[in-house]
Amino acid sequence: MKKLFTLTAMFVMALTATAQVVDGRNFGIDGFAACAGEKGTNHYLAGGTTGGAGGEVVKAETFTQLQAYLQSSKPYIVLVDKDISTGIPAYVDDLSTGKLCDDQSGKTGVKTTYGERITIAPNKTLIGIANERGEAPLFSRITFVMQCSSNVIIRNCRFTMNGVPILKSGENKIVAWRDGTQVEVGDPDCIGIQADKVSAKTDWGAHIWIDHCEFFNGNANNKDRYDGLVDCKNNVQWITISYNYFHDHDKACLFGKGDSDIYEGCRTISFHHNYLKNIEGSRLPLQRGGYLHYMNNYQYGCEDGWDVRTGATGYVDADYFENTKSPIRSDRGGGLNINTASGYDVVYKGCDNLMSGYTNIDGAKISKNLSITKSSWLPTQTVSSYMVNSHDKTADVPAICEKYSGAGKIVVWNEAVPAVDINKLNQALATQLNASCYDEKGNKITHITTTINSVTTNSANNRIAKYVKDGRIIIEKDGKQYTTTGVQIR
User: What is the mean pLDDT of the chain?
Assistant: First the structure.
């Protein structure tokens, strides 16, 4: 791209975050997230989803840094190249249940870490940088919440709530350690997208792209131990969820929290090239209201799949279902339009409870046929310019999803990764939009102060202090300050 065009550095960064071609395949932003929306509405964004484009490119190495940048009112492209949790130890009865022990000394129980919550502000891009083994960073026991947020991109990251602690006396809510106290901070969703801060009747959110990520939990004693992997509620629109790997969980994705959670044109979502494996319960997704383009997805070894319920409309487009109990249904208040073009129709293999008129390609017997409530909706009826980069034939979907869906499968960022910058971090801490930040001990912070790394004494008993100040290494000798560049201290 650099050889073909003369671009400003910032524009190159924007393109890097939202587009690239790998193996001749375009993995750039597409679907509803790429659309601007309808002019004159809250949901309109010229040019579609751009995330933190135009903001500074920063690196986060700790939970505090990650929280500070993502919650700032300023736009940022945030790069992460290592696993992150709160790092604050907690002891639970067992990881499968997660109930906090009364004694937190470590003498009893199983060690985990306290959970936390990051409230992602508008105009952010979060990108994981894979290590030399191709492993993308893992965020453990941290829920990422987009509450009335707009213009957010998340790519090439892994998410899990595995082992998150809960209170013995409460529901299965995430427990954080804040200012010396155990505090419940919300549902154990990996990612929650919603718009009900003031009122679900008036609030809104829009333009979100979640791409090439991995979501899992597992290790649960019951289906309510964890909540959704990616949930969308209330009036949120222009979303694309693409090339993700959802596995080893129970209730995967909830789009619409109840039959009253239905708004005019709400939840316009593109869900394509996602690999859903060993989802032992339901919600792939459970859809109430809204419009969903379900294209080139591969369900394998799952229970109840995509459930199109009250007021929901979907377009089934070249999806492959294998060894799944009830892959797709629209007999409970929703409507489906099915692409029946040659090569792009639904394929079932080893499944049960199929839509009426379909059989398994391997001849496996089924228990029942599910009636189809038909719709004529196509994504282009919502926005005429709608497009998805790669429309694959159904027979090719399993191999494509196994190769490309999930984190670490393609290089998402190929520009330089900056060093951690204390100055920039303090600017982010000073511009928190909707939530506070907490340090590695769980204490609320608003500024990173100078920290002394080491102090030595020479033979003449002259003290030499080395510390970090405003992102620079400073050395003091005999009361004078020196930077390390070109200076020798004797």
Answer: 91
